[in-house]
Amino acid sequence: MANLPRVIAHVDIDCFFASAEIVRNTSLVGKPVVVAGSSPRGVVLSPNYEARRFGIRSAMPVETAKKLCPSAVYLAANHHYYSDLSKRFRLVLESVTPYVEMISVDEAFLDLSGTSLTLGAPSEAVKYIRERILDETSLTCSIGVGSSKTVAKIASQLAKPKVSRDQVSYGTGVLIVQPTEERKFLATLPVSYLPGIGPKSESKLASIGVVKVSDLERIPRSTIEKIFGKSTEFLLDCGKGNDLREVDVSRRKKSLGHETTFDQDVGDVKKVRAHLQDLCVEVAEGLFRSNLAAKTVTLKLKYADFTTSTHSRTTGQILVTSRDLSDQVLDMYDRLQMKGPIRLAGLSVSGLLPRVHAHQLFLLDETTDRDRYKDLEETVFEVRRRYGREAVYKGPRIRPERQ
Ligand SMILES: [Mg+2]
């Protein structure tokens, strides 16, 4: 299971606002439809493909659009309605995998790396996702798949229907780029397809002879650095398909934690340590339930005199189990000079990432013991999930009052 190739999908609803209007008014089917800002100097927010045939584009002044196609149907935006559809879109995605990063109302990255058992190969998975979205929202979307966000996003753009003056050609709405093909796939594309390249950077790059992605490799790095500074490395990496950005589920949840206020201040070091271990179990269970792992753990202690101290630690090790947490937390506590009586202890984790990635790192790790511990703990949490918290209790038997 070690080193599974990453499978990232980018899902993007086609002409979201315009399509949404057509869904609730079928008399618009086949007509050019433009959703626009309602002020007199408004801009086009979303033209459907029929409207694009006339050259209408997003962000174009409505006045210009009306010159290009006076007969199009111009509609004001209904954001409440769109946000309701967007929620349904997100719920479909989250029912497929917990690893969803919403980029905007109609766009998301999904990490499908661990889904081959439940959803099959990426080609079957995305077909299923596309059908589910159509069922739930009546909207079509385009899906790109690659081993990185860069490739997935470009692939979804290329999977979109093609518009010419005469016609709109609808394809399958899906483009999957195989890992071995990615470099070749990127090489011939205009450099503006790479993340962070807007019209300004594009013309600067053109001035030094970079038009296609592959041109980046011919130009001395120092020349590119003059334009992009610190971002140079990221740009060059993306151009080679080495975009290591993860699907950031923490956009949904940034941290996760638990706090305990004691009935009476606790001064005994052994008892404090036991309480901290108990908190580690609570937080580990929270991670398990959210299907997440963490990079950073933070300990907060409030002393009897109401002073508070917080201590964070990021070791590079991915934190999954209560033992991963308690190794760090107890060590932090043991190193504290100030050990007066404590009235509150809190523990939180941040730097959250999908558990499946932690699992991979885990197996590369030396310890099968650690792996066994994780399995055992997950079983305990699973039993607790099914049969209630009292079914199995793990950790020291101290039951502090919980808030
Ligand atoms: Mg879209």
Pattern of helices and strands: EHEEHHEHEEHHEHEEEHHHHEHEEHEEHH
Tell me the distance between the termini: 40 Å
The CATH architecture term of the largest domain is 2-Layer Sandwich
User: What does the main sheet amount to?
Assistant: 5 strands, mixed
Present as ligands are: magnesium ion
Number of structural units classed as domains: 4
* pLDDT averaged over residues: 87
Given helix and strand content, the structural type is alpha+beta
Per DSSP, what share of the residues sits in E-state strands of 2 or more residues?
A: 15-25%
Radius of gyration equals: 26 Å
Supply the number of helical segments.
15
Strand order of the largest sheet: 5-6-1-7-10
Would you give the CATH topology of the largest domain? Answer: Dna Ligase, domain 1
Q: Name the helicity range.
A: 40-55%
CATH superfamily of the largest domain: DNA polymerase, Y-family, little finger domain
Report the principal-axis shape: elongated
